[in-house]
Amino acid sequence: MAILGSLVSLAALVPFIMVLIKLFQEKGAGHGILGLICALYTFIWGWQNSSRLNIRNLMMIWTGLIVVGVVLNLIGGGLNATQLPSN
Predict the structure, then answer these.
(1) SS3 for the chain, per residue?
(2) Angle between helical axes of 2-11 and 56-82 (0-180°, round to 10)
(3) pLDDT tens column, 36-85
(4) Which pLDDT band holds residue 6 (cuts at 50, 70, 90)?
(5) How big is the CA angle at 71 (ends 68 and 72), to the nearest 5 degrees?
(6) Domain map of the chain by residue range?
(7) Which of 4-8, 22-26, 34-38, 74-78 has the lowest mean pLDDT?
(8) Rg of the chain, C-alpha, whole Å
(9) Cβ neighbour number for residue 44 with a 10 Å cutoff
(10) Alpha carbon of 80 to those of 5, 7, 51, 75: distances in Å?
């Protein structure tokens, strides 16, 4: 389950890069570098400008991937925590 969560989280990089490219194009290098360092900035900026840039579907996909990745990683971690250590 954790592997699947990791794959979904890795898939979330694609929308991140697409929005980051838009950020560089719209706001310049300074904001783009900030978005590269802090993905949360890119995520919030993407939602704030989703209608204007026509990237609402992309942002919904990115949000869905983040939520599914977090849930799968939590389930995977929870499953590992409930297993008894073998001696």
Answers:
(1) CHHHHHHHHHHCHHHHHHHHHHHHHHHCHHHHHHHHHCHHHHHHHHHHCHHHHCCHHHHHHHHHHHHHHHHHHHHHHHHHHHCCCCC
(2) 160
(3) 999 999 999 999 999 999 999 999 999 999 999 988 888 877 666 666 66
(4) confident
(5) 85
(6) 2-79
(7) 74-78
(8) 16
(9) 12
(10) 13, 18, 41, 9
Letter string b/e over residues 47-83, b meaning 16 or more CB atoms within 10 A of that residue's CB: bebbeebebeebbebbeebbebbeebbeebeeeeeee
| Cα–Cα distance for residue pair 77/87, rounded to 1 Å | 21
The per-residue pLDDT for 26 is 95
